[in-house]
Automatic annotation (TrEMBL):
The lineage of its organism: Bacteria, Bacillati, Bacillota, Bacilli, Bacillales. One of its GO terms (molecular function) is ATP binding. Keywords: ATP-binding, Nucleotide-binding, Transport. It comes from Brevibacillus ruminantium. Gene3D superfamilies: P-loop containing nucleotide triphosphate hydrolases (3.40.50.300). InterPro entries: AAA+_ATPase (IPR003593), ABC_ATPase_HisP-typ (IPR030679), ABC_transporter-like_ATP-bd (IPR003439), ABC_transporter-like_CS (IPR017871), MetN_ABC_transporter-like (IPR050086), P-loop_NTPase (IPR027417). This is Amino acid ABC transporter ATP-binding protein. Residues 2-236 form the ABC transporter domain.
Length: 240
């Protein structure tokens, strides 16, 4: 589904990603972990072209999205992204947050969009919040709305950049549970996270980045019990 080939990214003279190659198969869940500043967000953002790689190629479903002629809008429609800080539309109700893009961008009727939105709110456990405004929600509720809003566009891939890092500890589980449910439906997912237990339990593979390099790319059973690199060992000692 996603093929990353020799991707490097620099900001001016600052080399942030060095020659990254990996693949994410359809229905796979990959956790991207590593220290702060190691390039996790940049790598994730390259997958939906919020950043353009300086070198290398990214293929999505067999299409080269790094080709300058690629249709960025149609690629982005296939890929949902959830951020640490929710990014909900503050002046819209929860329901309108979910229906806005499907109606505007996809041209779906308002009725159909609302029916779908209600189904998604039920799925994230927020049926009773359709008429609420984001400012009235807890962090965990906001993040569940953000996930439902992404799903309303019917993406084939979901990207998560530290979706629980801004949450109070008691709200982390409700968001991780929604993500776990999504993984169970067979969604292809790439998740930047510091939640090691979640990564171990839900991910098919762990990509460990350090200093912009993909230092390890292994199943959790291997990564957590027998990391190959000194850097990953040191990182895990601090995290676990
Ligand atoms: P992580 O998500 O692992 O913390 P990032 O991908 O956000 O790391 O950042 C990796 C490095 O790239 C950092 O040194 C950061 O300062 C730098 N960086 C990220 N985005 C930009 C940008 N838009 N312009 C310049 N430098 C950036
Ligand atoms: Mg980051």
């Amino acid at each position: 589904m996603i093929k990353i080939e020799n991707v490097s990214k620099s900001f001016g003279s600052h080399d942030v990603l060095h020659d990254i190659s990996t693949e994410i198969g359809k229905g796979d869940v990959v956790a991207i972990i590593g220290p702060s500043g190691s390039g996790k967000s940049t790598l994730l953002r390259c997958i939906n072209l919020l950043e353009v790689p300086t070198k290398g190629k990214i293929m999505i479903d067999g299409r080269d999205i790094t080709d300058p002629k690629a249709d960025v809008m149609s690629i982005r429609q296939k890929i949902g992204m959830v951020f640490q800080h929710f990014h909900l539309f503050p002046h819209m109700s929860v329901l309108d947050n979910l229906t806005y893009a499907p109606v505007k961008v996809k041209g779906i009727s308002k009725e159909a969009a609302e029916a779908k939105a209600k189904e998604l709110l039920a799925r994230v456990g927020l049926s009773d919040k359709a008429a609420s405004f984001p400012s009235k929600l807890s962090g965990g509720q906001k993040q569940r709305v953000a996930i439902a809003r992404s799903l309303a566009m019917e993406p084939e891939i979901m990207l998560f950049d530290e979706p629980t890092s801004a949450l109070d500890p008691e709200m982390v589980k409700e968001v991780l549970d929604v993500m776990k449910g999504l993984a169970d439906t067979g969604m292809t997912m790439a998740i930047v996270t510091h939640e090691m237990n979640f990564a171990r339990e839900v991910a098919d593979r762990i990509c460990f980045l350090d200093g912009g390099r993909l230092v390890e790319d292994a199943p959790p059973s291997q990564f957590f019990t027998n990391p190959q690199s000194q850097r990953a060992k040191q990182f895990l000692e601090k995290m676990l």
